[in-house]
C-alpha cells in the first residue's frame, strides 16, 4: 500500500483527522459564543463549512464531541502552562515548588486575558456541569488531573521547604484550582467589572504569601 | 379597609407570596436543569400557578434571574451576618478580616448540603461564561456582590486587620472567584476531598494572604 501512487495525495486517515480538527474548531467557537445548549451538531457542521450531518456522522453524539473537545482543550492549556514555565527565564534554574505554583496561577490567568475559543469553551463546558442533572463525567476527569497535578506540586513544596508544612496538599489544590478557575470565569463573564491585570497580580502575590514561609520571589 | 385587613391579605402581600413561590420554583428548576432549559412557562407550572404568571410578574427570564440572584445573595449575606452575631463577644469587636474569614467559611459550609437556592446561584453564574450569554441580570447582581467584598477589604485596611498594600477591587474578585470556584468543584465532584480541610485551608490562606506582615 505504501508504494501506491498516493504520495501527494492525502490518505483517508489524514482527511478524517483534518475534518475532525475543523469540526472541533467550529464546536469550540460555537460553544464559547453560545454555550452547549445553543450549539447544535448541525450548526457546528455549518460553521465548519462541512455538511450539517457530518458532526453526527463523525462523533455520533454531542456528548462524544464535547468529550473530545474537552480533552483537547485541557491538553492545550496544559501545554500552554508548560511553555509558560519554560519561557520564564528568570526562574528557570532552581525554581522552588512555590514559585512553580505562582507561575502556574499567573500563566493560567494570563491565558484568559485573551482566550482562544477552545480555552473559553473549556470554561463554558465547566459552567454547564453545575446543574444537578448535568453529566459531569468529562469534566470530572479533566478536573481530577489538574487537581492531582497541583496537589503533587504542593507536596513537592513541602519537601523543598518552600510551602508551609501545615497545608494539606489535597485541600490546598482545591483552593488554588477553585481560585484560578473562579477568577478566570468571573473575568471572562464581565470584562468591564474590573482590571484583569490587577486581579492576576493579586492572585499571584496572595498565593505566594498564603503558601510561603516568608519572603519569596514572585515575579515572572 | 382597616377592619378587613386582618383577615384579607393586601395586594402587595399576595404579590409577594406568589413572587416567593415563583422564585422558589425557578431556583429548583435552574438548579436541576440550568437556565436554558428552564422556561418561564415551566417555572409557572412548577410553582403551581399559571404558565403565564412568571412572564406577567417578571417580564423576561433575565429579570427573573436578576431577582433570584439578588435574593440568594441577600440570603447568603444574612446568614453570614447571623454567624458573626452568634459569635461570642460584641459584634463590633469583630475585625473586618475575621468577618471575611467567617463569611468565607459560612459560604463554603452552605455547599456541604446545598439548597436549590445556592446551587441555582452557581448554575446561573456558569451560564454567564459564554461570550454571547444574555444574562445581564446575573452580572448586575455580581457587581453589587463585589462591592460588598471590596468594602469589607477597605474596612479591614481602616481597622488595621488587613494589610495596606492589597487592592480591594481585585481582592473582591479573587475572593468571589475562590469561593464560587470551590463551590462549583464540590457540586461537580464532592468526593475529591475532605470539605473540613478545605475550609481550614481557606481560613489559613486568607489569613496569610491578607493579614498585615508582622
Overall description:
The complex is a heterodimer of chains A (220) and B (214). With 220 residues, chain A is mostly helical. Chain A has two domains: 11-60, Arc Repressor Mutant, subunit A, CATH 1.10.10; 70-211, Tetracycline Repressor, domain 2 (Orthogonal Bundle), CATH 1.10.357.10. Chain A has nine helices and no strands. The longest helix of chain A is centred in the middle third of the chain and has 26 residues, at 62-87. The model of chain A is unreliable at 215-220 (pLDDT under 50). Chain B has two domains: 11-59, Arc Repressor Mutant, subunit A (Orthogonal Bundle); 61-210, Tetracycline Repressor, domain 2, CATH 1.10.357.10. Chain B is 72% helix and 0% strand. Chain B has helices at 2-5, 11-33, 40-47, 53-58, 61-86, 96-110, 116-126, 136-159, 168-188, 195-210. The longest helix of chain B is centred in the middle third of the chain and has 26 residues, at 61-86. Chain B is elongated. Mean pLDDT of chain B is 87; it is low at 1-7. Chains A and B meet through α1, α6, α7, α8 and α9 of A and α2, α7, α8, α9 and α10 of B.
Average pLDDT, all residues of chain B: 87
Tell me what the CATH architecture of the largest domain in chain A is.
Answer: Orthogonal Bundle
- Considering residues with a beta carbon less than 8 A from a beta carbon on another chain, report the largest interface and each chain's count: A-B, 63 and 58 residues
At the fourth level of CATH, the homologous superfamily of the largest domain in chain B is Tetracycline Repressor, domain 2
Q: Approximately how much helix is present in the residues of chain B? A: over 70%
Compressed to H and E, one letter per element, the order of chain A equals HHHHHHHHH
What structural class should be given to the helix and strand makeup of chain A? mainly alpha
Count of spatially separate domains of chain B: 2
Rg of chain A over CA atoms, rounded to whole Å, is 20 Å
What's the end-to-end separation of chain B, in Å?
65 Å
Secondary structure: number of strands of chain B: 0
Q: Number of helical runs of chain A?
A: 9
SSE run of chain B: HHHHHHHHHH
Round the Cα radius of gyration of chain B to an integer and report it. 20 Å
CATH topology descriptor of the largest domain in chain A: Tetracycline Repressor, domain 2
**Approximate shape of chain B:** elongated
Given the helix and strand composition of chain B, which structural class is it? mainly alpha
Would you identify the regions of chain A where 5 or more consecutive residues have pLDDT less than 50? 215-220
| Beta fraction of chain A | under 5%
